[in-house]
Amino acid sequence: MTATLEIPDLGWREGGQGVLRGDLLRLFRKLDTLWLRWADAAGALEIEPPPMLPAHALQRLDYFASFPHLATFACVHDEDAENLAVFGKHPWQADGSGLALGRLAPTTHVLTPAACYHVYLDLVGQDLAAPITVTLGTRCFRREKEFHPLRRQWAFHMREIVCVGTAEEVRAHLASHRTKMLELSERLELGATFEHATDPFFNPGKSARYLMQKIDPTKEELVFGGDLAIGSLNFHRDTMGAAFEIRRGGETAQTGCVAFGMERWLFALVQTHGLPGAIAAVDRELDGGDA
After folding, report:
1. Fold designation for 4-53+113-288
2. pTM of the prediction?
3. Domain map of the chain by residue range?
4. Lowest mean pLDDT, pick from 3-12, 117-126, 129-138
């Protein structure tokens, strides 16, 4: 098994952040081109979201109660001159472990934890006459207990293809991509399989959503090597529609998303084929015009 740190063109910085260079970056872009073809085949509108979400948007989902351990906040100092001057003179903790922040202004934004939230925020209060499909790729941020290059990072890239519609429309969207993901895994010789999963709730024993996911699974992960989720299918039912007041034909909209963890796909491909072989494998997919 190839050690992660030996992957060519991969850099690693403290705080769980990877650096993609050269051929590894080329592979990243080729993969994203493949997902964009899938999105185009699904009739998806592509959007480019900002890196932050308003905190009030996530509050609609009780995100901070469910995932307080994962959230990364965009914070700034209170602009009081004395407050800034004190920080300027003594910006570091005495032990050098980090910045000694002064008094902060109210925190109003959160760095994006999952791409699809931007879609629902853009649809607040709308009643859709037809289903819509949206794709977006963005850097996401989740603060976890430990980090491993490409496999688990504080900052990582996620490509999603999101459907908003009736339950039947969303289920069809997820089912078609489930088949495509399995077929692609087979062609790329990844040996990945789908497994039922739950989200990483802060206190799962007391989370009604966690219990519901255990009783009636709504999330499937495409797992590589027995332990690494490289993609997922997520059926939210009417959770997002209710939280963001989105309707479809007068009824609360249902939503679902197909998600690809870009760095994890890089890991799986390079682990399986080496970097030159991984590029060649994805090139064959692109040349074959899979959609």
Report:
1. BirA Bifunctional Protein; domain 2 (3.30.930)
2. 0.91
3. 4-53+113-288
4. 3-12
